Every structure is written in C-alpha cells, then in structure tokens.
Amino acid sequence: MSQVVVITGLADGMGREVAKLLAKSGDTVAGFDCDAEGISTLAEELEGTAGDHLLEAFDICDRPRILEFRDKVLERYGKVDTVLSNVGIGFFGPFEEIDLESAFRCMEINVVGAAALFQAFIPAMRGAGGGKMIAMSSLVGRIPFPFESVYTATKFALGGMLQSVALELEPFNIRVAMIEPAQVSTTFAAKIHHLPPEGSPYRERVKRFIDRDNELIKGAPDPLQAAEKIVKIIRKDKPPLYTQFAVRDSFFLFINKVLPKKIRDGILVSFMDIKVKD
C-alpha cells in the first residue's frame, strides 16, 4: 500500500535517493530542504513518477514554516503515514578548540529541528490511529567518538529524546525508529573534516583520524544503497527502535555494551588509528 511520507533534508544524498525510490514505487513524497537548487532539480526528477510530490525550500530552524508546511501536506493529502527526519549537519574538531556558537547551531538543527518536525505531525498521526516517526541517527549516538564531541552530543540527545517519546506514543500506535549508520559514502564527512592549525596539540592525531575515516568511507554504502535500506524500514509496519546498516556496526554496539570501558576505549582508538605515540 502506498504511503504519504514526509522527508527533511532530501535535496541531496540519502534523502534525495529515498525520495526518488518512494516516488518511483507510487508513494507520495512531501519534503523540504534549505537547498533551493537541490529541491528544484529533485522536483524535476520526480515529475512523471508514479507518486505525487510536494517540495519546498526552507530551513529546519524555521519552526513557524514547518507548521505551515504541515498544514499544506494535510490539506492536500489528508494524512501522513511516515515522517523521516533526515536533516542534519556534522561537527568536527577537538573539543578544546571548537566554536560554541557553531556548536549551538548544530544542536539546533540536529536535535530541535527533529523535535519540531515530529511534534508538528504527531496530532495528525494520533488522530488517524497510527504512523511512523523515523530519525536518521548515527553510531556515535551510542558510541562516543573523539573529535566529534558536539555531533556525538546531538545524536545522544536525539536518541534519549526519541526513546522517551516512543513510550509516550506507543498507546496511539505511533512507532518510533532510529537508523544508525557509521559511515555513508557521501560528502558529509569531507565538509567538516578540517585539520587544527599548526601548533595545535591535537593536529597530528586529528590527521590520523581523518585519514582513517576517509579510508572507511571508501567501503561504506553509497547514498542509493543506504536509501534502499531506509526504504525497507519505511515499509515495515513495526520497525525496530534501532537499525544499523552493517554487521560491523552492530558488532561495535555489542562490544560497547558488554566490554569494560578501558578495553572498548582501547579498541576504538586503535580502530581509528589515534593511539598516542611514544
């Protein structure tokens, strides 16, 4: 059965591929992104597909606009089956050296943006007797990574918020799910990977971290492969609370749960090639 799916951050990458897959199979796609050019070209690509679409360009931090968009979606389609919060920005750097104003912007987009989106559509889902709220999280939402303190904080916050919300919405048949990729082969990491300045005590380890991360990204799913996995979750009537893209990611979560902190931290710094050298 076709669905009405609301998606944020669909102008590029995984979100764009999810929208195209859904539209091709006859689902209705309603979404927004701050990238007006990406929204325009996506609208052109979706023309002639089996599903209808409603796309707009605005920022996730514009909460009044989210409510206006919700009203348009409900007026046009009468319902929403699934809401996918895909919008998000990365944040990278040694904690000592990060700009906290920029960090606040990351929190606003990754956490409050998702909250505003979900909150807007809950009443309609509750009135219709159910629905699904799916968020793109990250492996770092449960395994803290060095040099990604702020991004990690946003994903921990998102996870905690949605675990709580899931308990509140269960009586209304609204399912909550989080998808936790480690890496996807996109430009996401390249946009945020910057070396600290010369003289920084973190520079050498950060360089090794970036090199290792870039190496891992080469073997990661591309946006289409990731989108295919996301669509499978959208299709499930009762998606699990957590889903990972790869067996390796699930394994890391397992050992993070069962091993003593000193051992798992040692595995992490070795895996990311950031051991302190003698």
* Sheet of most strands: 7 strands, parallel
How big a fraction of the residues is strand? Answer: 5-15%
User: Any low-confidence stretches, pLDDT <50, length ≥5?
Assistant: none
Number of domains: 1
Q: Class by helix and strand content?
A: alpha/beta
Question: How far from one another are the termini?
Answer: 60 Å
Give the number of helices. Answer: 10
Provide the helix percentage: 40-55%
Let me know the number of strands: 7
Fill in the CATH topology.
Rossmann fold
- Average pLDDT works out at 93
Q: How is the largest sheet built, in terms of strand order?
A: 3-2-1-4-5-6-7
The CATH H-level superfamily is NAD(P)-binding Rossmann-like Domain
- How do the SSEs run, as a string of H and E? EHEHEHEHEHEHHHEHH
Per CATH, which architecture? 3-Layer(aba) Sandwich
What CATH first level would be assigned? Alpha Beta
